[in-house]
Amino acid sequence: MRTAVIDSTTTSQEPLIRIQGLAKSYPTADGKPVLALSELDLDIVEGTFVSVVGPSGCGKSTLLNILAGLLGPSHGHVALGGTQVEGPRPDVGVVFQQPVLLPWLTIMQNVMLPVKVQRRRGREYAERAAHLLELVGLTGFEGRYPNELSGGMQQRVGIARALVTDPRILLMDEPFGALDALTREQMNDELQRIWMEQRKTVFFITHSIPEAVYLSDRVLVMSARPGRILADLPIDIPRARSLETTTRPDFVARATEIRGLLNAKGGLD
Fold first, then answer.
1. Residues 96/158, Cβ–Cβ less than 8 Å
2. Which phi and psi (to 5°) does residue 164 adopt?
3. Are strands 218-222 and 201-205 parallel, antiparallel or unpaired?
4. CA-based nearest residue to 158, from 140, 170, 143
5. pLDDT of 63-84, one tens digit each?
6. Paired residues of 232 in beta bridges
7. Taking the domains of the chain in order of start, what are their residue ranges?
8. Do the Cβ atoms of 161 and 110 come closer than 8 Å?
9. 212-222 confidence digits (pLDDT tens)
10. What is the β-pairing status of strands 49-53 and 218-222?
């Protein structure tokens, strides 16, 4: 049975991301495939920030990798901007759990790496790269190397790198999961600020329920494997949000609702 998910707040817009009947299974040594995702339907309109929460192993990262063109579906269709996803695309930026910076390149060279890989004209993107480093608070660090930066600063470089070619979609796979609590809060504020300026379509995976509510326009709650969408919840809390936002009754109520959905299905504690 498919789970139909529609963005109820913007149904008049053509979705930028459309997933229909998506399923993904993996082969195993004993010949019994493991079903990671089961019959997902999902529409996301342009300019929205959508987070996904769910228990470990529910297929969140699999779904993101399919959107990124790094994995193919077993069944179903995935389209971005009306075009079928058949591999990595220049209009999609990806931020992984670890920043994966090349240690022999400077910070500016790391940010400019997608420009080089995609064989674009570097001069046309150098100014944008400088602006992005300013946006993430790293002006003055252009000539430094990754080992001279903290973990949070390295993750900021990863965000700038993902945005340098001006993609329409930003996919983020638990980008702040390895950071300490204080740095994570700071990165949430940084990401919110960047999103409010850039207005990219963001698909964000996290294990943190408060983080999902804090950052998002919508939160998708996934079941245990095989991954299905249990709920598609709008977050109507005004922006810009701050630490005080997390004490609002509507924030607490939404976070409690998500936690209840996950616990009822054997999800996050």
1. yes
2. -65, -30
3. unpaired
4. 170
5. 999 999 999 999 999 999 999 9
6. 220
7. 1-91+175-269, 99-166
8. yes
9. 999 999 999 99
10. parallel
